[in-house]
Design a protein that fits this description.
globular; mainly alpha
Length: 337
């Protein structure tokens, strides 16, 4: 393995460890914050005062930074599949630290998501790395990608304005969909920024180009939006399910955005296309299994609550009836009679 690929591999593995751990730290911080104020899932921001949440935030930033540098040294086909390690790490930590049990069907869903995503990434077309920020700007303003951006932003606005109030607390795809759609745009912007930094370090300054700063503003906006809705997803749903679903949707949409922007789909053979379709079907199946597992857990919790409530009502009725009978007996044996 080449030296640069070795560096990219080490950075990608380290990134997965940090990112997988950050999910758990942020989840524990959100739980503590919810005990002292409004939950993030209901629009609260008390988690910003929780040190454990900030520890998770810093851990995630370190992981994303390592992932960002990994893309400079190694191709995406090597770096992207290693993101699946963060799913495994977060699921294991959630099992031991958050006591969030992942059932057998959940494990099957995780495996399906990982396998499907890896198949997609392995058979995805190779990227053609641009030589300047201006070249990326030309690609970003082509009609096909502008249509993709318009559709993406329309879906995001629909999810935020319509579906979030309607089913955001019950459907994991609402919050994760927003994160993933914005995440794909983030990657496109981050790629431009990475090329600008690399060229600047090599002596070809890209700081003077307005496109560099525009890509930076887009990246910051998308990252902030991702963080807000990722916090809502973690606060509302099981962390062991949030991680794989987010990974699947983010990876799929990133590959799609990259294919549209960089026209990587041209020249692919039938075997690669068939493999990608199989990967998408596997990913879809895994996502459905994971979502079904979450719904089953919610139904079981609701049934348990109803059973406990019913038992409590029966006890109260029995005690009330017993009290009434005792009062009646006392009145019968009263001296006044």
């Amino acid at each position: 393995m080449e030296t640069d690929n070795g560096k990219g591999l080490i950075l990608a593995v380290a990134s997965s460890v940090f990112i997988g751990s950050s999910f758990i730290l942020k989840k524990k911080g959100l739980k503590r914050a919810a005990a002292n104020g409004t939950r993030a899932g209901y629009g609260g921001y008390t988690y910003l005062l929780e040190p454990l949440w900030w520890a998770g935030m810093i851990t995630m930033i370190v992981g994303e930074a390592a992932n960002f540098v990994a893309y400079i040294y190694a191709p995406a086909v090597l770096v992207t599949p290693l993101g699946a390690l963060s799913i495994i790490i977060s699921a294991i930590l959630a099992h031991f630290l958050l006591k969030e049990k992942l059932k057998k069907m959940g494990v099957l869903g995780c495996v399906s998501c990982i396998v499907g995503s890896v198949v997609i990434v392995i058979h995805a077309p190779k990227e053609q790395t641009p030589d300047s920020v201006q070249e990326i700007w030309t690609l970003a303003t082509q009609p096909a990608f502008l249509v993709y951006v318009a559709i993406t932003m329309s879906i995001v606005l629909a999810l935020i304005l319509h579906f979030e109030p309607l089913c955001g607390q019950s459907n994991i795809l609402v919050y994760i969909g927003i994160c993933s759609l914005m995440g794909a745009l983030t990657v496109m912007s981050i790629k431009a920024i990475g090329i600008a930094i690399k060229l600047t370090m090599e002596g070809v300054s890209q700081i003077g180009y307005p496109q560099t700063w525009l890509f930076l503003m887009v990246a910051l906006t998308c990252v902030v939006t991702q963080l807000i809705y990722l916090n809502k997803a973690l606060d509302t749903f099981n962390a062991a399910i949030v991680s794989p679903v987010y990974y699947v949707m983010f990876t799929t949409l990133t590959i799609l955005a990259s294919a549209i922007m960089f026209k990587d789909w041209s020249g692919q053979d039938a075997a690669s296309v068939a493999s990608e379709l199989c990967g998408f079907i596997t990913v879809l199946t895994g996502t459905m299994i994971l979502h079904g597992t979450k719904e089953e857990e919610q139904q079981q919790q609701a049934s348990s609550s109803d059973l406990i409530l019913g038992s409590s009502e029966s006890v109260r009725w029995y005690e009330s009836r017993k009290s009434t009978n005792e009062e009646h007996l006392i009145s019968l044996y009263s001296p006044e009679y």
